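Re: export button greyed out
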Amino acid sequence: MNLLLTFRIALKAISRNKLRSGLTMLGIIIGVGAVITMVAIGSGAKARIQEQIASMGSNLLIVLSGSTTSGGVRRSMGSAPTLTVEDAKAIAEEISVVKHVAPALNGTTQVVYENQNWATNTTATTPEALLIRDWPVVSGRPFNQAELSAAAKVCLLGQTVANSLFGEMDPAGQIVRINKFPFTVIGVLSLKGQTTWGQDQDDVVYVPLTTGQRFLFGSRFPGMVRAIMVQATGPDVMNRAEEEISRLLQQRHRIRPGQENDFSIRNLTEAMSTAEASANVMTILLGAIASISLLVGGIGIMNIMLVSVTERTREIGIRMAVGAQQRDILYQFLTEALVLSLIGGIIGIFLGILASQLIAQFLKWPTLIAPSALLLSSTFAAAVGVFFGFYPARKAARLDPIEALRYE
Amino acid sequence: MPELISVENLIKIYQLGETQVHALRGVSLSIQRGEFVAIMGASGSGKSTLMNILGCLDRPTRGRFLLDQNDVSSLGKDQLAQIRNKKIGFVFQNFNLLSRTSALENVELPLYYNGTTAKDRRRRAQEALRMLGLEGREHHIPSQLSGGQQQRVAIARALVNNPALILADEPTGNLDTRTSLEIMEIFQNLNQDSRITILIVTHEPDIAAYAGRHIQFRDGKVIADKQVQPRQASVGLAQLPVLKNEEIA
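Workaround output, generated via the alternate export path:
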């Protein structure tokens, strides 16, 4: 008996008992739908975390200067004047696995435009900083090497600052006052959004490092910087870059073995990958819980197929009498179970997609439907059909034709 | 002329719990091609057991069974299924049609299991139904047909694969006299015109009278086996009084 014919007979048997078939399918529909929705929620969370990692800048290491102790109170990392522009240059020149290096100073400043004012964090750094953070300028241009050398009073505004001071107006070319000094706005940075911990990345002003040193963050220690942003050449050399920078700075700062470092290195990507890993665990967990409902759906199929085999004992007997072999009967019932679960699976996929979109729309949770999840769940549904359909089908195939014909 | 059926010393023992039931206690007989045989006997005489074995639905405990000169007594289930499909047509007392399935598809059923193409299936099933005077009823389901019509669909199903042998187990048991005669007439025509071997199991002497050979069973053994001059069903039909409701119709 050919495949197409078996398929048609199965469809016919299913359509003969629509309510029962529908209820049986419902188990699979809910199961597949739940798996897809849950995996979509997990994948969405993961995608958002990945997006945030990308927004921070990929393969990013931050070297912070050491802490100071004044009057017994230890202040945070970055408060002691231990890092210099020279350190940054040395890192760039001597370490091969480093792509970009940007020394930076920062502090809170008051930015004023006409009658508007805004207190924000100003970062003084080199043009490489924007490359490291993968942060394009959407209106205007980034500052250049010449402006850096000349300590030009130019600045770039983050979206939040631009909106607060200028509203709808394009700030490029306008003059703002930062801590009373007039700065020309040469560009506005693209929107970055919030970090995982809710910090607004767009509430920022960028100025050239030299400008910051001269006008905004004057220091008793010329050439001192608070932090050095370092971008490694790839994710696989992050640890190597961290070690080499550490060794280089220990050498430059003459720190003996066993002595505490006067700097610290933060690997933000690592912290984020931990978050990503937990999102992965969440996806697996949600998927596993949803799979249980698919399993229950499979048991429903088995139950109905067993009832169906008993009910149709005489039909099986007739088919055997006119020449159906054991495998013909086996395939007939197996196909029926498979068709039930496949149709249920397909409806479940649509239901899952719909549910994911509703969740994204009304609960504002990010959801992501991966094609692999669709493929996986439909394969899983078919596997459930075959697995749970096999026992009833084999039971049917092994019936004795004489007994089956006599069955009332 | 070669024998279609040849059984030698057939023994069938059923194990029912502790007790053994000897359904057949050494049956030997041979049936030629083109014979019309009635197997008679009280219930429990072993005639149904013999029919099941001759129909390749069951295997003998001991003994030899040659069907069309092939030994089938030791074949497996699937090989028996193939033989049933190719060589044997069954007609049952309760028709055994698939419910909620059209007459046409019921007749097509044996052809599903031997790789006949869809077009051929349809053509042959329609032909078989036409032969049995069921034109126009192809798409009726069994519950929309009378008993006689249902049995004719069953006969069409038995015939559709051009079998060498038709086995009919009490084919008229559920039918009235007139319909019974009509069915017997169909069997006689098939036997005489198409030379199909027909075996019918019955306990009604009136029905057995249309067969050319009577084999009598008792307690799992053949007790009588004789050739007789068969009565003609067409003659019997002509002699039946016309029913009143048929006059009205």
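Chain B touches chain A at residues 52, 55, 57-58, 77-78, 81-82, 84-86, 90, 92, 96-98, 100, 109-110, 112-115, 118, 157, 161 (CB under 8 Å). The button fix ships in the next patch.
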